[in-house]
Amino acid sequence: MREPHQFAICSLPGAVNIPLSSFPPSLAPSPNEEEGVQREGGREGGLPGKDQSVYVMCRRGVLSREATRVLLGRGWEKVWNVRGGLTKWKEEVEEDFPIY
Q1: Residue 37 within a domain
Q2: Would you say residue 36 lies in a domain?
Q3: Does residue 76 lie in a domain region?
């Protein structure tokens, strides 16, 4: 959910970074727009298939909440926002985790 320079500073092992700004136009939230078109292999813009579990995380949980809403609204069913994001991770899980 973060921009590449932010992801380079800190990320969890195995995480895949797909910034909200890179979501394809078919995923942009718009009340007048039809549902996004599912592309080959069930993937859109590098996102996992709509049948896969997705945990969305950002620095504080604000942008990830928006991305979760967009994905759920576009047909992904197994999407969870990690509340509090990396900041909460540092506070509750890994005290030495780097934060920007």
Answers
A1: no
A2: no
A3: yes
Domain of 56, in residue numbers: 1-24+47-100
The tokens of 53 are what?
A: 């579990």
Residues 6+ apart with CB under 8 A from 59: 2, 6, 85, 86, 87, 99, 100
Judged by DSSP in three states, 28 sits in coil
Low-confidence ranges of the chain (pLDDT < 50): 30-43
What is the pTM assigned to this prediction?
A: 0.72
Enumerate residues 6+ apart whose C-beta is below 8 A from 20. Answer: 1, 63, 66, 67
What's the pLDDT score for residue 40?
35
pLDDT at 72: 93
Q: What is the CATH number of the domain that holds 71?
A: 3.40.250.10
**Integer Cα distance of 34 and 26 in angstroms:** 8
Contact 57, 1 (CB under 8 A): yes
Domain count, the chain: 1
E strands in the chain:
54-56, 79-81
